[in-house]
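Posting here for the record, re: flavin-adenine dinucleotide.
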Amino acid sequence: MGIPLKHVVIIGGGVAGLGAAFKVRRAANEGAEVTFTLLEKDPRLGGKLQTERVGDFIVDGGSDAFIAQKPSVMRVAKLAGFDQDRMPSDESRKKTLILKKGELIEMPDGVMQFAPTKFLPFATTRLFSWPGKVRAGMDLFIPKKKVKPGELNDETLESLVVRRMGREILDRLAEPLVGGVHASDPGLMSLAATFPNMLEMEQKYGCLIKGFLAQRQAAEEMKRKYPADPKNPRTFFNTFKNGMQQLPDGMADAAGREGIRTGVTATRLEKLENAWKVHLSSGDVLDADAVIIATEGWAAADLTATVDPELSALIATIPHSSSATISMGFDTDDLGFSLDAFGVLCPGVENRSLMAATYSSTKWTNRAPKGKALLRGFVGGPHNQAIMDKSDDELIAIVRSEFRSILGLNVEPVFARVYRWINGMPQYTMGHLGRVDAIEARVAGIPTLGVGGGSYRGVGIANCIESGEAAVTKVLGELGFAPLAEDTAAPAARAY
Ligand SMILES: Cc1cc2nc3c(=O)[nH]c(=O)nc-3n(C[C@H](O)[C@H](O)[C@H](O)COP(=O)(O)OP(=O)(O)OC[C@H]3O[C@@H](n4cnc5c(N)ncnc54)[C@H](O)[C@@H]3O)c2cc1C
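Prediction output follows.
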């Protein structure tokens, strides 16, 4: 009789859980006597990645892009054999429009995050007043913040931007561009947890403009040195041909569908001496040698309550906000405005219900059939949680009314779909890194428990995959397995 396989139960079928499952599979492929069961409470896999086909439209309801600068997405796509399906955004139409007092103004060329790195486009834009532009330029002269040795350099996005470049840059650029990515309140958002590069830049270059300029020049130099293959361009925004859902689907195929159970909720964890019992909504109980929790933070807080109340209480302190995307298809005849942009940002100071609109079929050429366009509105976020109480019909009406008044779009959509993300976006508020350190220290003290997902060290898809993989590394080590070859190989020898 052979040695019984060690059984890892993974809770959560988003990219973190699937990243964990695929890594367990790779360990098994290398000879580790280990198997997994992944539990997902929804009938479909993917979590915040969801693609729906509506006729010939490809509609992404959640995440619509990944950033290839962080390699994990393409690494797993390559390992799973679908990297050839990466689709770059259509850079020839990469323009961002920003709403100012009812008018759409193109974001000036050379803006990095929120800092101008080209003088002329910034000096001539109507997006900022002259006093606002002069105040932004003072960044070059304001002394850098003093950070005591050993002290964590952290402050909110609002604090850094207002201190260095003034409130107008915060209100018109940083809040919609940088805060918007995290659907976060810039007055609460911890930069050390979200964009530590900005804090480091101030320390290294003395100001942000010089820091971002150096970053832009380094990127241009890389492009010159290593020109991209025109058939396979390197773009900031990327997706997959069949929509973002192709990523979790491809990972699930590579991990092995036989280990995946959808429509099953893990309701309670029981920690035994050297094993676990995972209680399910079906009434079944699964025996496990290790457990990985890859759910949203609030669900992880519930699941850890019976294992370590202190850990549960720590996780529960991470707040989450809700949002919704509303996608609509239109005939391009009589649209009444140009689709030649990636979309529109509506700064909070404009007091609109719409936070942003993406021209999805401009950004991704295959998202709408010929003669049609796909647009997506984004609502909710920390300043407008009340909108989440509206019905689907009401949300569609609100977004249509916003499209009418902002874009001049008066035609009937050929379809409309609403996707709700209730408590779907973790908020990395001040003190987040300290909370995550404390969470990780507690998890380190519980052998064969792993925790991963977007609530801790990065909401981006690549970070989430890495967190699921790191949880596997922890529990497999504790179960006595040797590290995988991919973790010990020199980077150049790795398969990706
Ligand atoms: C609207 C929106 C747009 C976004 N856009 C982008 C983008 O363009 N690019 C980007 O990089 N990031 C984006 N993000 C962030 C990113 O999509 C998420 O951070 C990431 O997908 C989270 O992955 P995850 O696996 O950690 O968690 P999730 O995707 O939340 O998966 C957790 C899963 O656990 C399941 N679960 C919970 N409790 C249980 C239980 N008890 N038993 C079984 N299953 C359970 C849930 O149903 C869920 O499927 C966006 C997020 C949102 C909400």
